[in-house]
Amino acid sequence: MLERSTTGYGKALQGLRQVFSPLNLGAAAWLIATWAFSAFQLVSERDRLLHEAAVRTQAQAQAFAAYSKSSILRLSEFLLDLRASWLVSQPGFVDMVRERESLVVDLSFQVSVIDKHGLLIYSSIAAPAPGEKVDLSGREHFRVHQSAGGRDMLFISDPVKGKVSRKWSIQFTRPILRAGSFDGVIVVSVSPEQFASFAQTFINRDGEVASVIKDSGQVIARVPALEGSLARAVSNRPYLASVAPQSGSYRAVSGSEGVERVFGYYRMPEFGLNFVVGESVGLVLAPYEVYRRVALAGAIASTLLLGLLYYSLRRSMADRRRHMEEMRLASLVYSSSSEAMVVTSLDGTIIDVNPAFAAATGYTAGEIKGRAGHSISGASNEAGLVDRLRATVQAKGRWSGELSIRRKDGSEFPAYLTVDTYLAHAYGERRRVALIHDMTEKRQAEQVIRHQANFDALTDLPNRRLFFDRLEYEIERSRRTKDGLALLFIDLDRFKEVNDTLGHDQGDLLLLEATRRIAASVRASDTVARLAGDEFTVILPSVGDSAVAADIAQTILERIAAPYHLASELVAVSASVGVATCPKDADNAEALLVCADQAMFAAKAEGRNRWKIFTPSLLQAERERLRITQDLRTALAAGQFALHYQPIVNLHTGKVCKAEALIRWDHPVRGPIQPADFIAVAEESGLIIDIGRWVLTEALDQLSRWQMLIGKDFQISVNKSPVEFCAPSNGTESWSSVIERRNVPVGSLIIEITEGSLMEQNADVMDQLSRFQAAGIEVALDDFGTGYSSLSYLRRLDIDYIKIDQSFIRSLTRGPDDVALCRAIISMAHALRIRVIAEGVETGLQRDILVAAGCDYGQGHFFCPPVEASEFEAFVGAVT
């Protein structure tokens, strides 16, 4: 009985030994290790993809925030300028809005003004109709500023649907403060799509989103746009916590779409905004699915090899070591086949590579085996980098970092290299495994972002940011080398007319061709940049004297002036160029650009299609022009203007039958300012429209008095600037409406126009002149003979008077030729049934010659200079 029990125990023990033999235990351990390693690699790959997505979205969110911050700062500065202009005068404010539309070309906007009661009083796209009240007192931005106690601050509202535009917009606002008290709100409205448009540069795949979210959780912009997204708020997001770091990442499921995403965010607490970029987990893990299939295939292959090895070992223990080594190598090479891998000995000799390595470098396994691992290191690597890598691996057994890899054809690509050492065991030797991750696409994406931040999208020229970087660099180099530096500021003349007539597509083609011509006109060392619109600059380093810059400027003018083929038409466009030098004119980038800009404006003022070198007097003249412009904005409301009247005498009877109304400006600080010093500025700024309407009203008031005092046939002439013809001709404030409301008697008013107005020949000018003449208003052509009028225009437009310019009158006493010319002008006018007024009559001899020539009327200091109304009445009383 005992013997049977002992025998059974021995058999059971032998069975256990067979089951737990070293071969079985080793096979089981290897099988577990193989699948554990595959699982580890799968988890690691998944974690890596998710981590890279988190890093990538976090970087994109930061770039998105940086770009948006620059837009917010520009809008804040724009609001400050608008508020300052509004506090001065509403017409100046409207001009400011129009002027700034061309400067903020990358943000379409609407400007609104709300009074202190919450009523809309101005909108740049649709002003309230007369009598219409648009109440915005319930808007968030109005309530915030109203309750701020007079504190000046920038406020960014939640998206609102405009009561006027009926579109969603983000409101950027500042309060209007008068004497420290709330007086209304200045509003600049920007569409959410455009505010977040920068995100389009990296949001280009399904599942990728970018949002701008306030600290309250309110979504104010989203790319791509999603119906209803602007009307909801988010919650339970890490960036909404007050202690959240400035940037970070997280995973969440979108409540509106039900899509799980990896999000990166960047907080901007100074504006209460959060910039969030997300990629769907499905999109991020798309490469993982391929990797998983390959890894599982490798693991299955390893399992099959293990089974074959197990079977072979049972047949021949002699082959066990060789089969175990082959299995280990197969596991190392094929378990991570989606990334290039290299297996080396401890001294760095390459033992084997996987197929991904061959695809990445062009080397086959046979060509690379036996070579040193550092032989594939690129020549562009930092000196000593490979030696430091080898020393670190020898000391620590591992290393990771960026390294340039050389392909078989000699080209190189950036890679992230990870080196690990696998310890020896019973069936193999120690080996090192290097994992090579190709970073080419990542570097290309970074390069695209850098390029977009520094180069103009249309012309690919350096933009304003890169221009200032290079200009500051060249100025600093000029200080060190003592070489001269010049800057050209180029502005295309009448470029707006091309856009308005041929369209913006043709305008872009013109800019591209102008870019090519400018670039072909400069040296290889020069920098051509586009600042904005049709404004270009050229940095000219190492310029010995201004003559070199002048030659280049002249070449640019000649090439730009050549005709352009646009829309099957030949288009002529010229340019105005300003030249400034460093350090003569300025020693810093901002000041040098201002000097070149002033010189360009001087060239444009002198007739365009020319270049001008900066002089200190130009800056002084510009400062004077700006001061006059600012003073003009308040002069009319302050009652600083007055009208003087100069008699127009019938040369045959000596009777005063007409008067020309002439404006005078008595500045409270600077005293009398001559019309020649402010009329051109008023025309350039558009203020001439309000000033001209005031002159007309004052002159008509005086006309009514003098027709009762002097006679019903008495006439007053009023000058109308060419710029005034651009104003609406059919509104309640138009000249025609003012004259019609006054019931001006037929033949009592003369409108004096210049030859420039006559030669415009556009529909508005012709229509206004026709309406004047239909109402019994006579038309006089001022300064006749100094321009380019033709007889056909005089006859076609039925001109009533021509006024011979005083330059002709002064030359009457010089000789018979000048007298004959004057007689010819008078005879020609009479033949066309046009009466003649001679301006600038200074002497009795001039008057006698004009009488003998048959001239109808005379005007000048010989009779009486321009005087106030009371003095005019005294003069008329004395001569009658």
Automatic annotation (TrEMBL):
- Organism phylogeny: Bacteria, Pseudomonadati, Pseudomonadota, Betaproteobacteria, Burkholderiales
Q: Which UniProt keywords apply?
A: Membrane, Transmembrane, Transmembrane helix
Transmembrane regions: 20-40
Residues in domain PAS? 325-396
Residue limits of the EAL domain? Answer: 625-880
Q: Cite the SUPFAM superfamilies for this sequence.
A: EAL domain-like, Nucleotide cyclase, PYP-like sensor domain (PAS domain)
Residues forming the GGDEF domain are 483-616
Highest taxon listed in the record's lineage = Bacteria
Q: Where is the PAC domain?
A: 399-451
Pfam families found in the cross-reference section: EAL, GGDEF, PAS_9
UniProt GO MF annotations: catalytic activity
Q: Specify the protein name.
A: Signal transduction protein
Query: Is Glycoprotein there in the keyword field?
Result: no
